[in-house]
Amino acid sequence: MDVNNKILVVGDVRGRFKQLFSRVEQVNKKAGPFEILCCVGDFFGAEKQNEELIAYKNGFKHITVPTYILGPNKEEDKKYYEDLSDGEICTNLTYLGKRGVYTLSSGVKIAYLSGVEAAASSGTKCSEHEFTKADVQAVRNSCLIAKNCGTDYRGVDVLLTSQWPYGMQEEQNSKASKLISFLCREIKPRYHFCAINGVYYECPPFRMPKDETTQFELCTRFISLADVGNANKAKYIYALSLKPVDKARLLDLVQKTTNEIECPFIGLKMDGVINQNETSESRQYFYDMDSSGNRKRRSETDKRDKRPRIMHIDQDNCWFCLSSEKVEKHLIIAVGERFYLALAKGPINSQHVLILSTQHIPCAAQLSSEDWEELLKFKNALRKLFKSLGQVACFTERHYKTSHLIIDVIGFEEGYAWKIKHSFEDKAEEFNLEFETLPALTSPKMLPEVGPYFLAELPDDTALITRQMKHFPLHFARDVFCSENLLNCDEKVNWKDCLLDNEEEKANVVEFRKRFAPFDFTDD
């Protein structure tokens, strides 16, 4: 029987550390154990008040529940976040970071965004206590990229911000953020916590309308928490008991309650904040202003085409389209109706091959269901081949600075299977990249429809993906494969350093074709 996971969230601490951790210890003994304590709003206070933390840093006092905090909301608080090793302030007290998605061991997904919205005049540059549209989009993409398929995104469990979203009690809340409204609208958290206004406020639940990411109308509960130890004794600590959204029954997510209100983020004017084509549901969410200042919906003819833009390439001049004279046909091992298998140019070893589309298709995300079915046949055939050799297969695709779908395939000894994911993670850290883990790929809809990405399918059937492609190293996959933990051949990272003469290539093709023959479905 699945047990719900327990989480605590508190509002502005402002240096009242003794009061906070004493209260948390009581709650944990009475209603716990709690997996995590999250702090929104201002964690640090005046210099004198912050001295209460010294006893915890020195180990004289202990924090009983792992505690994670957001970043500064004021310029003067930046100093408390400097020189933190891995975000750790002291035992069981950690700075989450400026923005991201934190997944607990239980599977609970917590999206977070630190600071306050930067002034429009600041452009892309902002202070450490501010966030921009780029930060919001990064969080949004991190949430959406992990969806199971293009139509069943289920949202995240919790969204943590310090600043309020625009659309909630503006008469008392002049410093709310439209970017946070956009983020909430896009990622659809089950719970959204914030603070810094010094009040406790919990509105009735509201339901996000379905959009391109999901066919479900998902429910959000918005909660603002008061300051720890406030004189009015307003609620500053909130206990949650929930099952991770990916494990919850669908009925529990979509079942409506009697006290729901209309989503406060529908129809907000976002001109100058978020462009129309940057939202998952522009038709319901964004409006134009006519010359008289009245709000109106965009006309059907004015809506921008949101389908992925496909680069038009002359197939006769493409190096990889099978009909092109430029294809090095002596490298081809097997040909299907939609894909063909070829020896890699400049291979790392004799087991290094490529799966390529026969027609000009830019990436796997744009494959039809028939294309996907044949691609899966090639992958499964290669898995069986490598298994017969005591090996496991790894597939990678780089949809970046290339216009034709190419999937790199290489085999590793079975004993190295567990090292492959760790090697990707090590290299990702080296190049300052962030990867999301996906379940086994079953459809092209699981991949980003628009924009570049890098994908690695691992022997355990999970996949690693990143859309963090600015300055992405073109040899990243080879960097991983050639690393000391795997093939230990750094000299082969650049394919140009591994070029074989024509006769060697032909011999390798003949040898691989013999090994592949028992698994080759293209001869059926």
UniProtKB/TrEMBL annotation:
Domain Cwf19-like protein C-terminal as annotated: residue spans: 445-522
Family annotation (SUPFAM superfamilies): HIT-like (SSF54197)
Family stated for the protein in its record: Belongs to the CWF19 family.
Entry-linked Gene3D superfamilies: HIT-like
Protein name: CWF19-like protein 1 homolog
Pfam families named among the record's database cross-references: CwfJ_C_1, CwfJ_C_2
PANTHER family: CWF19, CELL CYCLE CONTROL PROTEIN, CWF19-LIKE PROTEIN 1
Domain named Cwf19-like C-terminal: residues: 310-424
Lineage: superkingdom: Eukaryota
